[in-house]
């Protein structure tokens, strides 16, 4: 039966060794070889015992016992080597050494405790060990070592640990059985030989269970401090208790006890040495990882440049010392790259920008990516040297980017601020941001050094932005009206509503200053709605008073593209009972350049309500003749710069561009208004060009509504104008529907009620 179980275990280990590949194969081969040798030795020992007579030791029995002991020792050594070579138990020299020392600690403790108990209860002190036990000494020592290894595997190996503990216990049982087998052969005790063979037959199948375990990588206990101290506590406690018991029972120490104690001490010292070395290495690795992660925390992962933290670290270490300069860089048009080519191409561009920065700067300079397409360079240098570096970076970063078989062209705007202009790091960052902002506002692709005047401009802009939010509530906004006159009679027929802002502290703020801010911040929408209501209210009063007049209102691109703007216009007309033909909405050529298709759709929707559309600042450079034919407009307002460009000719004042604009407008069936007429020669040139309407300081500036109303009242009644060919006037009214009696059909308007209602 013993031979059958041993053979089964050996067969399973041999099959497992053939199946395994990689680092697990060596361990399984050693286990198979050791199991085969142990089985053959055990079977051979039993066979020899059957041929020897029972009785005292003889030469043959001692020789047989020595051979069995040697075979078992070699087999157990192969088994131990196989167990320690398995991934998850050993696998690396470091783990094998540590597990071996831990097993020696446990084995020495077991040996010492066994020695103490045997000396007291089994072998009296005066008799000593019987001679036959010498053949079992080495197998017994290996059995103790294997038992210690089983304990270590059961405690230290990765979960699940049962297969490792069973393997170690199987080796221990095999070694113990082999030692008992050798001792039985030596003493001629066949019954002891049979029991030992059974022990070997049970131990080998336990070792064979390793073949069913899944291979695991070798791991070292993460808690090295605990691994270097807790494992020795129980063995030392057991040895201390055993030694105290041995002495209290009257025992004394001999060579076996001293050797066990020395082994325990040496193993503990060696294990503590390795544990302390592991702790030092672990602490060193932690320090290296901490330094690595600290560096990662200060590095941009995409470009490899410093990030904002890294930049701040370099700045705090330098600002306040030697001269230093901070450059702020922003890629012009990078958003189009992401939108048109995708973020992968955009990331590739950013990586290339980082590479070019590193290649173009000195070792002491710190390039950084602050986020998106915004970069910075911190350099220990004076402003003049930094300016030269910034000019060189304009050319380096402006070179084409060859990506995916195509070329991308980008420019860069650079703001420059010196550390001498800032007392601390936040101020230096702020100054650089201001310089970069003005570099982008002044045309991009340029280097802009910081100027103290930027602070004043920024503070004023911030004040305007803040105060403008409540300007309507405080009643600080008002409308002024500049008349539009017919030529040559100079009778006012319309007016342009111009927005004015009188602030109690800032004074009169120019529209050129606060309107762009309102457009940028979105405040132009409520302000434009207020202007529309006020203009319609004033127009309703003038029409109710019998004045033949219309009012034009400027519309910003942001208002025009609002989804509810058409409803807003029709609501204002309805609330104040204003005929739609009396309201003119002026659109600048700048709006044409944004989105022509959407602009045409919006203007057609407005024109369907009955209001008229005027294209303001015509000739400023945006619209083409094709666009002019597409746009649904009724009036062209020639830009004042064309009117001002009037030269003296042989026959008087000449304005060829105005003449072209007027003729073009008339050819397209549009009315034409010449803006910016400030001198008599302007009027002469405009009248010669055939323009019927004019506007400018020559006929009156922007005045309050009451002043314009007084002028309307003092003006003579309109004469019915004839066409150029002398025919009666066109059927389409120029300024809105007129009743048979000549009065406009708007009736009396309760302006206060209408304003509250609107």
Task: Please explain how this structure is put together.
The chain is of the alpha/beta class. It folds into three domains: 2-221 and 237-261, no CATH class; 308-451, Alpha-Beta Plaits, CATH 3.30.70; 475-757, TIM Barrel. It has 28 helices and 18 strands. An eight-stranded mixed β-barrel has the order 8-9-11-12-13-14-17-18, surrounded by four helices. Strand 4 and strand 5 (406-408) form a beta hairpin. Helix 2 packs antiparallel against helix 7 (190-208), helix 3 (59-85) runs antiparallel to helix 6 (162-187) and helix 4 crosses helix 5 (137-156). It starts with a helix and ends with a helix. Residues 122-132, 217-228 and 720-758 have low confidence and may be disordered.
Q: What is the average of the pLDDT values?
A: 78
What is the assigned CATH homologous superfamily of the largest domain?
EAL domain
Give the CATH topology of the largest domain.
TIM Barrel
Strand content: 5-15%
The major beta sheet can be summarized as: 8 strands, mixed, barrel
Poorly predicted segments: 122-132, 217-228, 720-758
Tally of separate domains: 3
The level 1 CATH classification of the largest domain is Alpha Beta
Widest sheet: strand ordering:
8-9-11-12-13-14-17-18
CATH architecture of the largest domain: Alpha-Beta Barrel
Structural class: alpha/beta
Helical percent range? 55-70%
Separation of termini?
Answer: 109 Å
**DSSP strand tally:** 18
Radius of gyration: 51 Å
Label the overall shape. Answer: rod-shaped
Number of helices, where a helix is a run of at least 4 consecutive DSSP H or I residues: 28
